[in-house]
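YM 10:42: Glycosyltransferase family 4 protein sequence, as discussed on the call
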Amino acid sequence: MKIAVICNYVLRPDRIGGMDRFYQSYNQKLIEMDIQVDWYFTNYTSFEFYKGMNIYSAEGASVEQLFLNQNISKNNNYEAIVTHFTELCTSFYKECHQLYPNANIIAVDHNPRPLEGFPLKKRIKKRIAGLLYAKYIHQFVGVSQYTVNHILNDYGAFLKDKTKVVYNGIDTKVFIKRTQENKNKFIVASHLRASKGIQDLIKAFSLIDNSALNNVVVDIYGEGPYEQVLRDLTVKYSLEDVIFFKGSSAKLNELFCDYAYMIQPTYMECFSLSILESLSANVPVITTTVGGNLEVLENGKNGFIYEPGDSKALASILEKVITDKKNITDDTATLIQQEFYLDKMVSEHIKLLPCT
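YM 10:58: structure's back
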């Protein structure tokens, strides 16, 4: 058996996260089952973590077009084609079917939806795309129930029988668990763009009395187009001694345990691997109600929840945490170890393949 996995995803040695560990583990398990895998990524320059995987790189261009170009003149006899992070129900899926009419096509949806929903014109386009191209996809997979609901809402409820949830999972073994309080140290692990809501976090800290911010540290790991805006806001609110920008890191699995809480003030999320990673390190999470967050978080038990964009509510939570009026005492890692672990995710994805 031979399959292709097409991922609109950039592989980088300075950013080894949950999906990277999934790709590697999935590849290894398939090899053990004597299933060959060709991988297609948006961009990749060889590094040790991905050694031994058969990877084609689009060099920053369209990974869908790379796949089509690579296979128009070849006969790879793929029995399954799996996509991650690509847009669903496009002409690409029809072209895949034309190239490999006997292959099972599996589309995994990791794509968050805007908080306010899509505009009417885009909603109509998606519904038409569902009618035109969904027939070429044998299985739709959402990484949360939230995602599945939106697949059906976007492309049509008629897809219900071939749509299912496969939750993300993480390699809990690589995360060092927090064993001490590390009071008033907060971590943010996020791409730096407006939809991640980090501007709300900065504003929230500006609403807290300065006397309460002594010894408070917020380390922001990540990079992105909104970084300078966030740095400027930090200066505007005189929070340079509180908020620090750390750039990308491939060692977050070792760093989470140094913090008391992770803050994720996001406006858009499907099912956050960062939340799973933080909880696995026994670090509770302060985040919003969006996406699949409430499918893993319980307010007051393994985190604190507020409505997206509400800086005052976030400031209130943070102030109570800093002044010991709120605290999470349960071991947050237990749920992740039991329900959201990598081997389970890999096993569920392999079950989607034909003849397995």
